Amino acid sequence: MGYINIEIKAKTNNQEKIREILKSRNADFKGIDNQIDTYFNVASGRLKLREGNIENYLIYYEREDIEGPKQSDVILYDFNPKSSLKEILRKTFGVLVIVDKKREIYFIDNVKFHLDDVKDLGYFIEIEAIDKYGDIGKEKLLEQCNFYLDLFKILKEDLISVSYSDLLLKIK
Question: Taking the domains of the chain in order of start, what are their residue ranges?
Fold first, then answer.
């Protein structure tokens, strides 16, 4: 299944306030997922295997490394965590880096929010305005992201242009 989304990622020391805002807007809390994202060596884009207690996906995505809202082209494969997929990918591509995080997952309509505690990196907020069926459009997704950036009072200097994997590779 492929789709587009517009997303932002930002460093934050304000997760409690963001959590309060989400609850005040009746966000649908999906739970806390302890996720291990294993990134593999690939020629283009990013390929990761997400293993969690809520989400288990093989995820391929292409995204520019720019600050602020940016488009991601995503392909998801929902896999059985007891399968040998990770071993096949590890032997085929080799592991680039592993991201270990605790993630709170919320939804308001088509917008997904992550409050992340990433091992060795700290605390982050991610906002993903998702168009699974191609009926929302890029402009509306961008508008949604900007709305929540303002609502959560996320500062431009806190925006992150790269993935957690890139941040970890810089410090290792």
Answer: 2-171
